Amino acid sequence: MVKQKTRLTVILNIIYFIILVLLVLYTLFPIIWSLGNSFRTDDSKIFRYVSPLSIYTFIPKNFSLNSYKSLFTRWQFLRPLINSLIVSLSTIILGFVVNGLAGFAFAKYNFKGKNILFSFFLFSFMIPFEMIAIPLYKTVGHMGLLNTRMALILPMISNGMIVFLYSQFFRDIPSALIDSAVIDGAGTLKIFFELITPLSKPVIISASLMTFIQQWDAFLWPLVAASEKKYKVVQVAISEFTGEEKVEWGIILAATIIAIAIPICFLVPLQKYYIQGISSTGLKE
Amino acid sequence: MLSKKINKKMIEPYLLVLPALILIMVFKIYPILYSVIGSFFVKAKGGIIKFAWFTNYKFLFNDPTFTNSLWVTFKLNIFITPIQIILGIAMAIYLNRNFKSVRIARTLIYIPVAINMVVASTIWNMLLSPNQGPINSIFAKFGIAPQPFLTSPNQALTLIIIICCWKGVAYWMIFLLAGLQNVSPSLYEAGKIDGTNYFQELFFITIPMMKNSLKFVIISDTMINLFLFVPVYMLTGGGPQGSTDTLMYEAYRAAFKFANYGRSYSIVTILLLITFIIIGIQMHFLKNED
User: Fold this and answer.
1) What is the ipTM of this complex?
2) Stretch B257-279: mean pLDDT
3) 0.90 exceeded by the pTM?
4) Which CATH superfamily is domain A75-279 in?
């Protein structure tokens, strides 16, 4: 009886792991294919090995960095890459100040309208960016900010979910600590930047990752607001590659691999913080 | 208890919230109002903008392109959100085991969360290329005839759903898994004593305990899918034969291809209305009984 049960458990475990492996393969298959083919010597090789299917559909016979070289020389991919990083980094830094201060107010003060304001912030996070991109184009146009980096940064700074995240974290910082700083005569901003900020590393990392992913994922807005060569971000540059017949698959794949590798470099080592961040916001009412 | 001294300065909390509030008002709320109001205006001859009541809406409902978009958006949303959420729940339950191998698998399965939809679309577009794509050569290996994929009006919308699931399910799974991990094991033990089977456990313990995260996921996912744009733009351009022409893509085309902002704002406003109705219904059914 006992033996039978363990055998069943073993079989179930094997099935479990087979499905697990299939799930991982399904997730990774497009990425593996892109990665392999971005290292081909030239494009005709991609098509030659697609059919019939073999291991060489995925892995090149000779590794070459040609696609990456021409991506950065002929297609000047460095510029959109730098643009994306500047935009993300600026949004992260400004977002910390703006959302952090708001979160601090919600965590440590009692004031009239606090609950309504807080719900309003949470609600505003739910608005998908697509909903506002078209009218925002006019708004930002009136401000004279179209085709500037500011057009990409400003609308993304204030984020209800991140305000929420900060306020949750700050709530757990003992008020006695703040009180003693007040007694020492420190102003609110000084308290925020010199006392609270150093204590808040985990939440700052969570919020930064969320902001980074959000900027990295935005498309409709950067497409309409900053498509000029000078300010174009990675996503927009890649979308233009696919529109142009003359861009080879190898080069497009090299671009996609870079666009995948950069967020993964941050996300995999810091995954714990990212998951903590988004799960603590999703669990609450 | 916070020091009375800073609590006395009653203006201070407002000043701290103000920058965030202004940015949200200017960049989120104002544009929404702008499109609602703008939907009642038309561009008359000579470029003068004038108030025209429901002219834009009248045009829309007499326009087969728009009614087709409405239908496509309906078809898409009736499938995509439930599929994503069910898969999200299933994967969360499946991956809620604390083995090293499962943790590694989870890390790998999260990867698409960090992949931009433009990138995901670009890669899948190549994979699904009818003549040169590897999916068709995988099909050939199994003796399946080559498929037209995104060039077929019968397959394009389904493929968009599949691609969105590839990219999106892991994201929702993170929320749901967090909800699951909040379930106290004592609940399951109590269930075991009462002799519950697996499905009773699933429907009476697991899913109700995920309710908070589920609520959040359902509402956010619904909104995102109602406004689905990127894969349509990247993969099909609304085609073939309008089979993937979602409302959001139609709104984009009206504004940025035809400079017909009145039409675009009306479509966005209609989407807004649909969103409010659906979210309202969801809230009604998901509200806590207690």
Assistant:
1) 0.84
2) 88
3) no
4) MetI-like (1.10.3720.10)
